[in-house]
Design goal:
- This protein is an alpha/beta fold.
- It has one domain: TIM Barrel, CATH 3.20.20.
- The protein is built from 7 helices and 9 strands, in the order αβββαβαββαβαβαβα.
- Strands 3-1-2-4-5-6-7-8-9 form a 9-stranded mixed β-sheet.
- α5 links the parallel β7 and β8.
- The model has no long low-confidence stretch (mean pLDDT 97).
- The structure holds iron/sulfur cluster.
- The site of iron/sulfur cluster (SF4) has 12 residues, from loops.
- Keywords: 4Fe-4S, Iron, Iron-sulfur, Lyase, Magnesium, Metal-binding, Queuosine biosynthesis, S-adenosyl-L-methionine.
- This is 7-carboxy-7-deazaguanine synthase.
- It comes from Flagellimonas allohymeniacidonis.
Length: 210
């Protein structure tokens, strides 16, 4: 049972509900193919019906973990640290990223932007979701916009979101895994007609790695 004191530490970002942490290859987006240490934080109420990490949603099922131990583990493996979820911005990312930066590690985040941006980031990958749109100034700070394409309407949503990001942001369309065979030909066609976009694939799933 989580005590009030522990919940206080979680609410301050000094502890985080840690679902898993692992060293692997970043499979998606701009940094695909790069070795990276992943920190998957529990907790997400965005509710994407196709979510492939639904077990992350309930933060209470993931043990509150001291950020110092998360940082110490990460520093043993890689210079590139990817914080993902769940929705990591459910929590204050300030203390964790300060700890990672104190070790001179590169901090990357994968977020829907559904909550205000906290933390110190070298790379922000924004993957906006229709049912809980990004808030605050995250569009100005985003390095990579990654829109998941589940159906044809997602192309319209992608263009709406691309209007909001800064001019330096790299634009990606990524097929949702369960419908990839149907959507990949449409995405290929779309990118050839609209070359400001690039295709992102979940290459880690093809490589059969986490
Ligand atoms: S934002 Fe991410 S973790 Fe949350 S429901 Fe959507 S896909 Fe799943």
């Amino acid at each position: 049972m989580v005590t009030e004191k522990v919940m206080d530490l979680v609410n301050q970002g000094l502890m985080l509900p840690l679902m898993e942490e692992f060293y692997t290859i970043q499979g998606e987006g701009y940094h695909k193919g790069t070795a990276a240490y992943f920190i998957r934080v529990g907790g997400c109420d965005v509710g994407c019906h196709w979510c492939d990490v639904k077990e992350s949603w309930n933060a209470e099922t993931h043990p509150p973990t001291d950020i110092d131990s998360i940082v110490a583990n990460a520093a043993q493996y890689s210079n590139t640290i990817v914080v993902t979820g769940g929705e990591p911005l459910t929590w204050d990312m300030g203390p964790l990223t300060e700890g990672l930066k104190a070790k001179n590690l590169q901090t990357h985040i994968e977020t829907s932007g559904a909550y205000p941006l906290t933390g110190i980031w070298d790379w922000i990958c924004l993957s906006p979701k229709k049912n809980k749109l990004p808030v605050g100034d995250v569009y100005d700070k985003t390095d990579e916009l990654k829109v998941i394409v589940y159906n044809r309407h997602d192309f319209i949503f992608a263009e709406e979101q691309a209007e909001k990001v800064n001019n330096n942001c790299v634009l990606y369309l990524q097929p949702e895994w369960s419908v990839r065979e149907k959507m990949i030909p449409l995405i290929v066609d779309y990118v050839m007609k609209n070359p400001k976009w690039k295709i992102s694939l979940q290459t880690h799933k093809y490589l059969n790695i986490p």
